[in-house]
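> @MW can you paste both from yesterday?
MW: sure, first one:
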Amino acid sequence: MKRFLIIAGVFIVMIVGVTSCYKDVVLPKKGTDPNAPPVQYSYKKDIAPLFNTNCALSGCHVAGVQAPDLETAVSYNSLVNGGFVNTIIPTQSDLYIMINGNMQVHIPDAADRQKVYDWIRTGALNN
C-alpha cells in the first residue's frame, strides 16, 4: 500500500509538471521592432508633435537653451541641418542615440522612439 501511494504521488507530480509547462509567446508591440521594415511617418503630423510635447519645454530644447531647438517652427532645420540626423546609418544619428539613452526618460514609449527611428530610416523628410 505504501509503495502504491509513492508511485501514485510521483505519477501525479509528473502529470502536474507536464501539463503546467507552456511557452509564452511575447509579440512585440506594433511599431517597436527595430528590424521590421520602416513605416513612413510624417514629420509635421507624427514627429514634430512628439518633440513639441516632450522636449520643447521651458529650460529644455528651446531657442538659446540647449541644442537642438525643438520648437515646432524650427525643429526640422535644427535637427537635419544641425547634424543630429544621419540617414545613411540611422543608429548613429545623435537624435537616435539621445532618445534611446539619456533622453529616453522624456520619450519613454518604445513605439514613439520607433517612430523617430523609422522617420530617420525613411530619409528624414520634411513632410
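MW: second:
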Amino acid sequence: MTAIKESSTRSANKKITADMCPVTYIMNRIGGYWKPIILYQLMSGPKRYSELKKAIPTITEKMLIQHLKQMEADFIINREAKPVVPPYVTYSLSPSGQELQPVLQSMAAWAVKNSAELS
C-alpha cells in the first residue's frame, strides 16, 4: 500500500473536514476497526503488549503495533517501558483517552441494545 502525500488534495480535504466537523476529527483519531477495540480493552486498566494481544487474538502484530503507535502519537494512550530484565512495555489510557470512556461505554451499550433488537 502506498502512502498518501501530505500535500495531496485528499489530505487537504481531510484536514478541512476534520477542522469543520468534530465527529470527523474524533473518527480520524479513534476510527477504524481496531482502535476502538484496543481502547475498550485499556478501559479496564493498564495492559502489557502480550495482554492486549491475548485479549484481541484476531489482530496481527503489525496492526496492533501500528495502532498503538498512532494512538500514542495522538496522546490517547501512554506507553511506559519498564527498565527491568526482561524489559516489557505497559499501555494505559492517557487523560485524553480516559475522557473517551463515556463515549466508548455509550457505543458498547448501543451495540448491545441494537444487536438484541436484530436477533
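> thanks! Strands lie at 47-48, 77-82, 88-93.
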